[in-house]
Every structure is written in C-alpha cells, then in structure tokens.
Amino acid sequence: MTLTKTTNKSFCFHCKSPVMPKVVFYHNEPDASICPHCNAKLKTFKNSAKLEDRLLVKIVAFSIVLYLIALAIKL
Ligand SMILES: [Zn+2]
C-alpha cells in the first residue's frame, strides 16, 4: 500500500526521504523544485530560456541558409 502511495512522490537525493517537491516561482515562472525537508534543489526549470536560445539559433541559421540560397540564385 505504501508503494502505490509513493508513485507521485520522488526521493530527495540529499536527505533520501520520499518527498513531494515544492515548486519555487521566480518572476511568475517555475524556477526550481525543492525538497520541503532539507531545501535541496531537486530540479531546475531553466529549460524555457534554453529553448528560446535554441529557437533563436534556428532562426539565425535559417536566415543564413536563405541568404546563401539568394546568393546562389543571383549567381
Ligand atoms: Zn531533502
């Protein structure tokens, strides 16, 4: 019975107790989940910024490709 109850819980790597991670918000966006027992950071949610960076890289790469195609057509 206890095993089924812990399916939604994760184990804190720091204090090794089953925890319901507490989500910390920063600028209205989830920043990290922390252990309510020892305040260890379990997960960081910095993926959104990284995703934006990746999207920007893709846009830049795409415009470079378009520029090269435009040059090729001119030649
Ligand atoms: Zn902990």
List strands and helices in order, with pairings:
Layout (H helix, E strand, L loop, with lengths): L1 H4 L4 E2 L6 E2 L2 E5 L2 E6 L6 E4 L2 H28 L1
Antiparallel strand pairs: 1-2, 3-4, 4-5
The structure holds zinc ion (ZN).
Structure description:
The protein is an alpha+beta fold and 75 residues long. It has 2 domains: 1-44, no CATH class; 46-75. It is 43% helix and 25% strand. The protein has 2 helices and 5 strands; from the N terminus they run H-E-E-E-E-E-H. It has helices spanning 2-5, 47-74; strands at residues 10-11, 18-19, 22-26, 29-34, 41-44. Strands 3-4-5 form a 3-stranded antiparallel β-sheet, with no helix packed on it. Strands 1-2 form a two-stranded antiparallel sheet. The longest helix has 28 residues, at 47-74. The radius of gyration is 22 Å and the shape is rod-shaped. Mean pLDDT is 82; it is low at 1-6. The structure holds zinc ion (ZN).
How much β-strand is present in the residues?
25-35%
> What's the overall geometry?
rod-shaped
Order of helices and strands: HEEEEEH
Q: Biggest β-sheet: count, sense, barrel?
A: 3 strands, antiparallel
Helix/sheet category: alpha+beta
How confident is the prediction overall: mean pLDDT? Answer: 82
Helix content: 40-55%
The small molecules bound here are: zinc ion
- Main-sheet strand order equals 3-4-5
Task: Provide the gyration radius in Å.
Answer: 22 Å
Termini, distance in Å? 73 Å
Low-confidence stretches: 1-6
Total individual domains: 2
- Continuous helix count: 2
Query: Number of DSSP strands?
Result: 5
